[in-house]
Amino acid sequence: MLYLSERDVERILDVREVIEVVEEAFKALYKGRVLLPLRTRIESKKDGGDILSMPCIIEDFSLYTNKIVSVYPGNIEKGLSTIHAVIVAVDASNGVPLGLIEAGYLTALRTGAVSGVATKYLSRRDAEVLAIIGCGFQARTQAKGVGEVRKIEKIYAYDIVAERAERFAEEMSRKLKVEIEVVGTAREAVEKADIICTATTSNTPVIKREWLKPGVHINAIGAYTPNMREIDTETIIDAKVVVDMKEAALSEAGDIIIPIREGRYSEEKIYAELGEIVSGVKPGRTSDEEITVFKSVGLALQDNAAVYALLRKYIKELSMK
């Protein structure tokens, strides 16, 4: 059985490859070829964290994966990463274990990839200004994912911890060869943006409707529980909203659940699942003026797809030695 470390994953896999395979996975989901139970979540109330279990089989890949992922926002103050994860991969055709994979970087990579897929279909083709709200580890792959599908000329970065935004700007301006400006408020970051990525653990909106210009696209990927939200109700009401999977969004996404609780939104107003968009069943963006939102809580199929791409490439490398 293989063991692949974070360094192995980062060396072998890039976001472009993951975007391609994640798009295929969402097509498979729409066609009913994915077995995807809702993830289970155990809250560590004593330490203020969550531990989640995320199983999945994608029949087209003949692969079973189960990811154990922890999210501990308080780790920032301890000098530790917020997210830690490990994935077990099994050959779904015979039940033989294939590998154990450290998955902190892979989790960030596949989340950046799904934002890349959503941005490809939902943002304006001429979009060139990106805003990043929340400049932790996940922000880096968000910028990479969006940059693979749109020609980004400028990035505005904001984080409640200014030093994190400064580190993000210094590192990613060099890697992406894009100008990154650190700003003092979320409003400054989003007012001029064509695309916005929110990657926070906020319980209250970090984006307000009155800050947004026409035609903006938002990838909201941070909030993952019914009581967390990054986008205010007015934005959800006015936007064309696409989710990764309705069942998951209605169970976990506070950005959707809270407006429904308020009586101002309903399940029927969700425009589409991402699988419907990438399969061509429903169009993505249909005008330059509409506001679009992709709300993702993160699906195990994204992990499965990334592991499939990882193992395929790694085995190919071994065969060439």
What does this molecule look like?
- By secondary structure, the chain is an alpha/beta fold.
- It has 2 domains: 2-106 and 301-319, ornithine cyclodeaminase, domain 1 (2-Layer Sandwich); 118-298, NAD(P)-binding Rossmann-like Domain (Rossmann fold, 3-Layer(aba) Sandwich).
- It is 38% helix and 24% strand.
- It has 11 helices and 15 strands.
- It has helices at residues 6-12, 15-30, 104-122, 137-149, 162-176, 186-190, 233-238, 246-252, 254-261, 274-278, 300-319; strands at 2-4, 34-35, 40-44, 49-58, 63-71, 83-91, 97-102, 129-133, 154-158, 179-182, 195-198, 217-220, 240-243, 272-273, 292-295.
- An 8-stranded parallel β-sheet has the order 10-9-8-11-12-15-13-14. Strands 1, 2, 3, 4, 5, 6 and 7 form a 7-stranded mixed β-sheet that branches.
- It is globular and about 55 Å long.
- The two termini are 19 Å apart.
- The relative contact order is 0.17.
Q: What's the helix count? A: 11
CATH topology of the largest domain: Rossmann fold
Structural class: alpha/beta
Largest sheet: 8 strands, parallel
Question: Distance between the terminal alpha carbons, to the nearest Å?
Answer: 19 Å
Helix content: 25-40%
The SSE order reads EHHEEEEEEHEHEHEHEEHEHHEHEH
Question: What would CATH call the homologous superfamily of the largest domain?
Answer: NAD(P)-binding Rossmann-like Domain
Q: Which band does the percent of strand residues land in?
A: 15-25%
Strand order of the largest sheet: 10-9-8-11-12-15-13-14
Mean pLDDT metric: 95
Rg over CA atoms, rounded to whole Å, is 18 Å
The parts where pLDDT drops under 50 for at least 5 residues are none
Please state the overall shape, judged from the principal axes of the Cα atoms. globular
The CATH architecture of the largest domain comes to 3-Layer(aba) Sandwich
In total, how many domains does the architecture comprise? 2
CATH top level label of the largest domain = Alpha Beta
